[in-house]
Amino acid sequence: MAGKTEIESGVVSRPPSGEGDHEAVEGSGPISDAPGKPPPPRFARSPSPDEGGERRRGVTDAASFAKVAKATPAQIADLARFLELLTAWNANMNLVGPASLPDFWNRHAWDSAQLLRLAPNALTWADLGAGAGFPGLVLAILGKGRPQFHVHLVESMTKRCRFLSEVVSELGLPATVHNARAETLTLAVDIVTARACAPLHRLFGYARSYLAMGAQGLFLKGQDVVADMTEAARYWEYEADVVPSLSDPGGRIVRVKRLGRARKV
Fold this sequence. Notes:
Layout: E1 6-8, E2 11-14, E3 23-24, H1 53-57, H2 62-69, H3 73-90, H4 104-113, H5 115-118, E4 124-128, H6 136-143, E5 150-155, H7 158-171, E6 175-179, E7 191-195, H8 200-212, E8 216-221, H9 225-232, E9 236-244, E10 252-262
Parallel strand pairs: 4-5, 4-7, 5-6, 7-8
Antiparallel strand pairs: 1-2, 2-3, 8-10, 9-10
Helix pairs in contact: 2-4, 8-9
């Protein structure tokens, strides 16, 4: 029906005026349904690299992770040590849900590593609200030894920074831990990313300076991404598309190409 936003096969689409066929359009800025109200975002669902293949094969352990992520034995050893440190620290502080640790290789490692497929040439990354190190520490492990590769781990909680610093130090990772709020830093990076950090409308505020300096955004989100993006469109003008997650059938990666001005709400 004309005038309503519909969701079909993962695409938020809107029929052109006077036509019945749906047209998927990237970006924000569709015609508003009511005067004075910001329009919902329009975005296209982009296929992920080898979409479905890795999900069908599944990642259940280090061996299956190594196969899909093309990880070396040295990288697997570093990830295994990271898991040991995470398990030990998690017993005394809330880094991740304890029930998620047995699924480390898929839920945490592969969920993080898949971002490299979307930005294979990116050398500098900023992980906002780095927390337990997902995706940032995984990216640093997989980028270790690659010339000029570096990950900025941005975390405002001091005790989490101590954990991140211990992993970075012990594994000799190409990473810097910043004990600061994301919006107070000025870092020129290729990619700004975050997982389980905040709703998009708040996350855009944290990431604004990074995006303004030319970074692309890759934000790991859940199955409620449509509602999240629609809410964000009340506060921001932006262009983004959505890539299906390889680690979780319900997960999505929001790829932000442009963040415009903030709206007055």
